[in-house]
Prior knowledge:
The chain is an alpha/beta fold. The chain has two domains: 23-52 and 300-438, Aspartate Aminotransferase, domain 1; 66-296, Aspartate Aminotransferase, domain 2, CATH 3.40.640.10. The chain has helices at 23-36, 55-63, 77-88, 105-116, 128-136, 156-168, 191-204, 228-231, 261-278, 284-294, 298-324, 346-353, 358-369, 400-408, 416-438, and strands at residues 42-43, 99-102, 119-124, 142-145, 173-179, 207-211, 236-241, 254-257, 371-372, 374-375, 388-389. The chain starts with 22 loop residues before the first helix and ends in a 6-residue tail after the last helix.
Amino acid sequence: MPQNQPSAVRPVSFEPRPVPLSATLAVNEAIARKRRRGERVLPLGFGEAGIPIHPALTRELGAAAGRGGYGPVAGSAALRAAAAGYWGRRGLPTDPGTVVAGPGSKPLLFALLTALGGDVVVAAPSWVSYAAQASLAGLDPIRVATPPGEGGVPSPALLADAVVRARARGRDVRAVVVTLPDNPTGTIASEATVRRLCAVAREQDLVVISDEIYRDLVHAPGGTVPSPAQYAPERTVVTTSLSKSLAAGGWRIGVARLPEGPFGRALRDSLMGVASEIWSSAPAPMQHAAAFAFAEPPELVEHVDRSRRLHAAVVGAVADRFTAAGARVVRPEAAFYLYPDFGPMRDELEAAHGIRTAADLTHLLLERYGVGVLPGSSFGDAPAALRMRVAPSLLYGEDDEQRLAALASPAPASLPWIAGALDRLSEVLSDLSASVTAGEPALA
Ligand SMILES: Cc1ncc(COP(=O)(O)O)c(C=O)c1O
């Protein structure tokens, strides 16, 4: 063969490491495929806030669009000071030197797990990515059930036991991840539970990673969230972002608040090392917009307030429909999720449709009715528990005009496009229970 000729094409002989698509993104794609085929769908799977970006944020982003430089790894001084002020107003006085910014809280969480370098406990159920990230980091997440009705926090009594047993098996358990308020259940652990969790974290020498991305979306006006950073400040890292309260998930910007003191400084150094090798710095224009947002100007406070009312109204209406259909639902107190349990209909669902697991049930809902929801098993719940996460926020509107009308409405659940979706949901749920009663075969 002449010297400069490429050699014959040779197919790669090995498979890349299999990493499944995040369950939330996967259900989104399944719904989009059905929509393209012209099928009727109810998109209740994806955890998107479903409201438009506020024009003041767009303006700030535009003003900083010319910032092409990398900037400091930890984030700009302006963003770190604004985030420190944000936390200070929530009872967590913060030195800007303890704040690290990143391209969303998701990569910050992964970088934290990498920096901590030990095994991690996550709640069962809990947000899909904690366990997936732990696995990517080469760790085997330890799942601990939450107390009844208090999602997001592993039961403190079970946590101590799980850590002692894991250590006896040789595992180097170093951290516990909590979600306050919680995704997937929309509930908030009580102050007493958070205090007990912190006491166990101290006894067992664990770092607490507190994901507080839904903190500003508590439904009750003036409602607060207990943060482990209040009760175990020396060992708690808090993360948040603009993705949920300001619906800027696609902008990819988040912040972490590290503990003060020698451990916090060492963790910061390590986190910065990881950040410097993966994302270098958070996007500069986003940092500028986020500094504006974390300073909480009145127009954004009002916007978040309206979105909180919208989430409360629609998630409450959806919860009512599930309850009316016979599911057990713990009333959500925050965010835009609910976690109905079809356990009370288990025997009938098995007899009529052969349903034995949450995945069987969500598959039936998707294929037969075009309803996209996620099985509890995607969140680490027991596969046989007939629970699912329902995220109604994509019902707010097909376009920004409808979404703005929903934000402005005193009774958003009565707007025709939302009421229509709610009625369709009731129809599906009553058909499911009617076919349960009639004993119809699955996937008719
Ligand atoms: C509990 C929780 N944490 C983190 C994230 C990711 O947020 P970000 O967009 O800041 O990466 C999500 C998004 O769904 C979430 O639900």
